[in-house]
């Protein structure tokens, strides 16, 4: 799982929630700079992505477009504090949209169908 958010506290929380979901399923890679994740897309295969929308180097939506340009169809879950992005994020085949701060329940509701799809 690739997690891209500029907030280390939030990324650690997401890592912990994914570990609590099932410690044997997920190997997470955390990126605080979306350009670094773009550079890894040709070297790593991610089962799904959790992306912040508002980042200084590149928006999460633009990052999702880069992911889709590489014909990567893995699910994308967006994290944001703003509801107004909802329509725009679904144009890049978004799997889900979580408002910050995410809760374990809400992340689990998103993760269950992703795990079923990956299997």
Key descriptive features of the protein:
42% helix, five-stranded parallel beta sheet, 5 strands, alpha/beta, globular
**Distance between the ends:** 15 Å
Mean pLDDT: 90
What is the 3D shape?
Answer: globular
Oligomer: single chain
Task: Give a nutshell description of this structure.
This protein has 119 residues and is α/β, with parallel strands linked by helices. The protein contains five helices and five strands. Strands 2-1-3-4-5 form a five-stranded parallel beta sheet, with helices on both faces.
SSE layout and pairing:
Blueprint: E1 2-4, H1 8-21, E2 29-31, H2 34-40, E3 49-52, H3 60-69, E4 76-80, H4 86-89, E5 96-99, H5 104-118
Parallel strand pairs: 1-2, 1-3, 3-4, 4-5
How would you describe what is shown here?
The chain is α/β, with parallel strands linked by helices. It has helices at 8-21, 34-40, 60-69, 86-89, 104-118, and strands at 2-4, 29-31, 49-52, 76-80, 96-99. Helix content is 42%, strand content 16%. It has a 5-stranded parallel sheet, with helices on both faces. Strand 3, helix 3 and strand 4 (76-80) form a beta-alpha-beta unit. The longest helix is centred in the C-terminal third of the chain and has 15 residues, at 104-118. It starts with a strand and ends with a helix. The model has no long low-confidence stretch (mean pLDDT 90).
């Amino acid at each position: 799982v690739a997690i891209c958010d500029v907030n280390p506290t939030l990324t650690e929380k997401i890592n912990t929630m994914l570990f609590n979901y099932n410690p044997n399923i997920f190997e997470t890679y955390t990126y605080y700079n979306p350009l670094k994740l773009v550079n890894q897309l040709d070297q790593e295969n991610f089962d799904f992505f959790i992306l912040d929308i508002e980042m200084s180097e590149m928006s999460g939506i633009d990052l999702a477009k880069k992911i889709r340009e590489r014909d990567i169809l893995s699910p994308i879950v967006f994290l944001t504090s703003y509801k107004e992005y909802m329509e725009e994020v679904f144009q890049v085949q978004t799997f889900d949209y979580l408002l910050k701060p995410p809760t374990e329940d809400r992340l689990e509701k998103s993760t269950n169908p992703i795990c079923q799809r990956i299997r």
